[in-house]
Task: structure prediction
Amino acid sequence: MADSEPVPSQTYLAKPVVKWLKQVQARRVLDLGCGNGAMSHYLQRQGFYVVGCDVDERGVEEASKGASGAVFTQVGVYDPPELLGETGFDVVVANEVIEHLFLPAALPRFASKVLKPGGHLIVTTPYHGYVKNLFICLAGRWTAVTTPYGTEGISSSSRVAPSPPCSGVMALMWSVSRG
Result:
């Protein structure tokens, strides 16, 4: 597997994700639901320390074949976060994962346990309608829904990560505060 570029299905997310990571001065990144690791390898090559995790054993095996230096482990959002073996991530990135979960609230719950205090969760999901995505947004403490038509605020307690114009993607950035 070539590990220098994300797979075509995530190419449109690569540059915005790197921009968001740089915006929050991230160093340590967890790619939650990394699949075959293409995005993890890309982020590692951009200078971030990246751990990728996925519930799919074959995906993790494929990801582990890359030579970028990213680390991979078979862990999913329904697993105890301790199985990851690391905490203190600056950012957890979950690209197009939440829409596959039976219990979407498990994703921010898992992320909050592995993020450092003040860390960020970036979630992207294909945009399939305002109402569906609004429910996802309201399930957590996200501040806005970013649609192809702009950003609609819900509260003012966190940062908003704008998605690429007309991308058909909703992107949310959630700040975690823990004591």
Notes: The longest strand covers residues 115-126. Residues 8-175 form a domain with the Rossmann fold fold (CATH 3.40.50.150). Residues 137 and 163 are 15 Å apart (CA to CA).
